[in-house]
Amino acid sequence: MKAANILILPGWQNSGPDHWQSRWERLHGYRRVDQHDWMRPLRGDWIAQLEDVLLQGVEPAILVAHSLGCLLVAAWATHSHNTHLVSAALLVAPGDADREELRPVLASWSPIALQGLPFKSILLGSRNDPYCNEARAREFACAWGSDYIDAGHLGHINAESGLGDWQAGHALLQRLASQPHHSTSAQQEN
User: Rounded to two decimals, what is the model's pTM?
Assistant: First the structure.
């Protein structure tokens, strides 16, 4: 697992300095995909930015997404012709842009892309996430073809969850990275 191939995809409003994504970036040298506007996220802009970063890479990337970053992975995979540039994704606490209270800010993210991802993925959901209930997180995992992991009662699995460097999450990333690369579309053809 090469640090340069691990891309951090924060959600709406970015991940602050105490967020596990930021801590992993500092500890392990992973790269954050910076968005032009963290406060008013437009799906098309975020997809284009991720595509640009991936096209600059040499080897397939592993995406580490949190909240709206999870929806970005699904939307990008639905529209991109370059999904071979990703080998896996760790999807943590997806936000639900279809929720009534989030629609005004995340209007361009609805409807949520619910097609299967063409690379292996793990989705961690929390039983008490204020932005996506457990049933909806499981629905996303099923639609995207992700292995679902119940993270227990960790809220939005962010800095407020008190995870620090979140070693258990990093162990999942390492496990995901050590699995052989596969393509869902290639599997369906066999």
Answer: 0.94
